[in-house]
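Quick one, tokens below. Sequence please?
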């Protein structure tokens, strides 16, 4: 079954992801000259997290808290019930979670990682092992912070950049069972499944695979935790790619997924296009165990550190997740960009996933060793020549092991996030154009080294420097080819 925007055909035969929304509030953008962008890079330690948005043209850093809200969400924010305890905004949030995610107990938290902190605090101990399809930076940081470690159990095809596999986020069921037998169920507090595995290119898992994980969880009596931050798009891709669900509604697909998990948590900065988060379950014992941690770390149980206005926006946004013409917008723009780049021979993660387009720095910067952070270098170079801010998702985003040694990432990716309903197609075409130029001049990109390295989550505030004057040479080539263009 096609969704509305796919049903609209162009006379030209072109495959264009037509927007089924109109823009009613706009925000002005600036593209500062490349000379200023070079200064900004030095000021920000060649780390795109440390750039100021006044120097950024298209902000493709993340889809976290940067999505466009709907008129209905903004309207609901004005109706918020400002109360410390017993707010009716929270009652509406509870109802949305029950209707959309099928869970009756809800704990509010200020964002996704706060949920990870609470879950890890309650269940992870020294020596715990948490098997998962793949880690997310903050999920891993919290598990290791409480003395545990993670084990990533994807199938080999997940690491193949160029693939046609529809579900690269699937958990390797054989390895999961081996992992449980090796460590014993007693050391495994829970199995974690992440919808649309963020760090390997926003790749979904199938419901068939989730059912397989559930069966193993049942066999060894281990709880299954679902990170649902990117569940809307995962559900939409299930509908596109999994035969059994072609005619199933988004509502039923979502319920089918959450029903298989004992505990579901999410970042509302992504799911529901607002800001905040939640933990939900139908298991009263789990709820009671986690409940006391919310007032300790977050806030009272009816706001959890969030503004009640955001709580209202989440409630409305959860229902909007069920609207296919809304949820398809970001993945369709991503598919458009991925297909355009691929047709020019630029290495990108395929099939197109969710949350962004993932460019393979390992291939583009094959001349830069992993010890000089090819993905970080590509992110800096791309900002320099375009004003587009992406995010390094490679070894800079990894953490050192317990002995302080570098652990190199499986993939060195530049992630160009496509926040939901924010960009227009001509902006996506600009990204394609500048990336094509950079690809043709890739030999000019050089490596980076750390000059300031924080001990935890170093990619956020870390400072790097180019190993030589490659940024100046890249800028000179840009001026040569583009004249006085911005
Ligand atoms: C963003 C994200 C988180 C963390 O959420 P925050 O709201 O940024 O703290 C956790 N898991 C996944 C899969 C995410 O994408």
């Amino acid at each position: 079954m096609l969704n509305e925007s796919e049903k609209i055909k162009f006379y030209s035969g072109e495959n264009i992801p037509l927007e089924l929304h109109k823009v009613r509030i706009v925000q002005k953008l600036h593209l500062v000259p490349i000379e200023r962008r070079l200064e900004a890079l030095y000021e920000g330690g060649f780390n795109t997290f440390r750039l100021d948005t006044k120097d950024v043209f298209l902000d493709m850093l993340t889809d976290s808290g940067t999505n466009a809200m709907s008129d209905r969400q903004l309207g609901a924010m004005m109706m918020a019930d400002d109360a410390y305890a017993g707010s009716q905004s929270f009652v509406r949030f509870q109802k949305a979670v029950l209707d959309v995610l099928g869970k009756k107990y809800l704990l509010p938290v200020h964002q996704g990682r706060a949920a990870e902190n609470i879950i890890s605090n309650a269940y992870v101990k020294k020596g715990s092992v948490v098997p998962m399809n793949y880690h997310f930076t903050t999920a891993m940081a919290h598990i290791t912070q409480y003395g545990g470690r993670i084990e990533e159990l994807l199938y080999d095809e997940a690491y193949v950049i160029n693939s046609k596999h529809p579900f690269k986020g699937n958990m390797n069921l054989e390895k999961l069972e081996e992992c449980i037998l090796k460590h014993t169920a007693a050391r495994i507090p829970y199995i974690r499944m992440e919808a649309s595995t963020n760090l390997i290119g926003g790749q979904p898992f199938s419901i068939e695979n989730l059912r397989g994980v559930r069966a193993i969880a049942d066999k060894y009596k281990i709880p299954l935790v679902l990170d649902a931050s990117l569940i809307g798009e995962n559900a939409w891709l299930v509908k596109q790619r999994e035969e059994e669900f072609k005619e199933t509604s988004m509502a039923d697909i979502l319920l089918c997924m959450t029903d298989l998990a004992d505990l579901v948590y999410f970042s509302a900065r992504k799911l529901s296009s607002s800001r905040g988060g939640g933990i939900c379950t139908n298991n009263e014992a789990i709820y009671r165990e986690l409940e006391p941690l919310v007032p300790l770390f977050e806030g009272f149980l009816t706001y959890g550190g969030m503004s009640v206005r955001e709580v209202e926006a989440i409630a409305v946004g959860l229902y909007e997740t069920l609207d296919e013409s809304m949820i398809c917008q970001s993945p369709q723009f991503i598919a458009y960009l991925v297909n355009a780049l691929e047709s020019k021979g630029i290495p990108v993660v395929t099939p197109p996933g969710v949350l962004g387009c993932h460019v393979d720095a390992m291939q583009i910067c094959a001349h830069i060793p992993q010890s000089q952070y090819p993905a970080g270098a590509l992110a800096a170079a791309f900002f320099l020549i375009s004003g587009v801010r992406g995010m390094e998702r490679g070894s800079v985003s990894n953490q050192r092991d317990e002995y302080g040694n570098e652990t190199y990432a499986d993939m060195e990716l530049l992630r160009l996030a496509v926040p939901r309903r924010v960009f227009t197609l001509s902006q996506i075409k600009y990204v394609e154009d500048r990336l094509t130029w950079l690809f043709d001049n890739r030999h000019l990109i050089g490596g980076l080294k750390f000059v300031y390295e924080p001990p935890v989550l170093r990619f956020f505030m870390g400072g790097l420097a180019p190993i030589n004057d490659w940024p100046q040479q890249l800028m000179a080539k840009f001026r040569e080819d583009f004249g006085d263009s911005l």
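The mean pLDDT is 96. The radius of gyration is 22 Å.
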